[in-house]
UniProtKB/TrEMBL annotation:
Residues 3-188 form the Prephenate dehydratase domain. The keyword Repeat does not apply. It catalyses: prephenate + H(+) = 3-phenylpyruvate + CO2 + H2O. PROSITE patterns: ACT (PS51671), PREPHENATE_DEHYDR_3 (PS51171). InterPro entries: ACT-like_dom_sf, ACT_dom, Chor_mutase/pphenate_deHydtase, Preph_deHydtase. It comes from the Bacteria. It comes from Dietzia aurantiaca. This is Prephenate dehydratase. NCBIfam families: PRK11898.1. Its EC number is 4.2.1.51. GO terms for molecular function: prephenate dehydratase activity. It holds the Pfam family PDT.
Length: 310
């Protein structure tokens, strides 16, 4: 049976994302009846996959308000290479959940996930006069802590309240409306999901400490008209003040221009980690696909066969 580790416990946004993956017909693996194993962090979920104790991990990847989910990116950057096979998106709105009978004035500790904390801070400041925000491993962990009495409130999906016997003090809370989080399904290296024409590819690379090295690396993408959708740098944590660059680009390793760019990047970088190619969740964000240059490929093949005039 397929096992999927996810940032738990039940009721997290990641749990909701896993339900989406289960229902997604594009995901070929039989996720529908997979066993779900809650983990305490993205790192722990990915470690279960590396150790062979889970086949996949479902983890948050990027938030439209708060940006890259660093604990996930950092865990993907080191250790045995893993690969992203799919993504899904969840609208992020929060319920403020309390034990029955708790009033806004009673809330002195609101405990939730750091990404959630960043998205309700203003609302909490304006509506819970005595509250201090503390962070914990997930929104649903916050809900469990409220149920156990070690915190007074959490900002979490409504379902975390249903699971833990809590009631909403407020619903549909978000400092910035329309926030979404992208979640990814990660497994051990395997052939990527077939090219759909609306794909993303993710790489992480380290650069030699030389003038121009970042520009030269990115030029390999720009000269091939490859569209970037996310770029960031994170400390290597090996050598002080050295960085790894995380790049998402539009296209699939089976797009000739992307394949060529990956080979060129390999020469420009000190380390290059391929994290997979997978279909985008939302076609509205598909970006500009790389040129297919089918004519050039046909021209070259013609020359190799001894054909062609020009
Ligand atoms: O804690 C959760 O529920 C998560 O899945 C992480 C998270 C928290 C806030 C927004 C998106 C993801």
């Amino acid at each position: 049976m397929v096992t999927v580790a996810y940032l738990g416990p039940p009721g997290t946004f990641t749990d909701a994302a896993l339900h989406r993956f289960r229902a997604d017909a594009r995901i070929t693996d039989p996720l529908a009846d997979a066993r779900a194993v809650p983990a305490g962090s993205p790192d722990e979920a990915l470690a279960l996959v590396r150790a062979g104790d889970a086949d996949y991990a479902c983890v948050p990847f990027e938030n439209s308000v708060d940006g890259t989910v660093n604990p996930t990116s950092d865990a993907l950057a080191v250790g045995d290479r893993l690969q992203i096979f799919a993504e899904t998106q969840i609208d992020v709105v929060f319920s403020i959940l309390v034990r029955p009978g708790t009033t806004a004035e009673d809330v002195t500790v609101l405990r939730t996930h750091p990404v959630a904390a960043a998205q309700v801070r203003r609302w909490v400041g304006e509506n819970l006069p005595n509250a201090r925000i503390e962070t914990t491993s997930s929104t649903a962990a916050g809900a469990e802590e409220v149920a156990a009495g070690s915190a007074d409130a959490t900002a979490a999906p409504a379902r975390a309240g249903e699971i833990n016997g809590l009631v909403p003090l407020a619903e549909n809370i978000a400092d910035v409306g329309g926030a979404r989080t992208r979640f990814v399904l990660v497994g051990r290296p395997a052939p990527p999901t077939p090219r759909t024409g609306h794909d993303r590819t993710c790489v992480i690379f380290g650069l030699p400490h030389q003038p121009n090295s970042l520009v030269q690396a990115l030029t390999e993408l720009s000269i091939r008209d490859i569209d970037l959708t996310r770029i960031g740098s994170r400390p290597t944590r090996v050598e002080r003040f050295t960085y790894l660059f995380h790049v998402d680009l539009v296209g699939h390793i089976d797009d000739p221009m992307v394949a060529e760019a990956l080979v060129a990047l390999r020469h420009r970088t000190e380390s290059l980690r391929y994290l997979g190619s997978w279909p985008v969740a939302d076609l509205a964000e598909a970006g500009s696909p790389p040129p297919d240059r089918a004519d050039e490929t046909a021209w070259l093949e013609g020359l190799r066969r001894g054909e062609g005039a020009g």
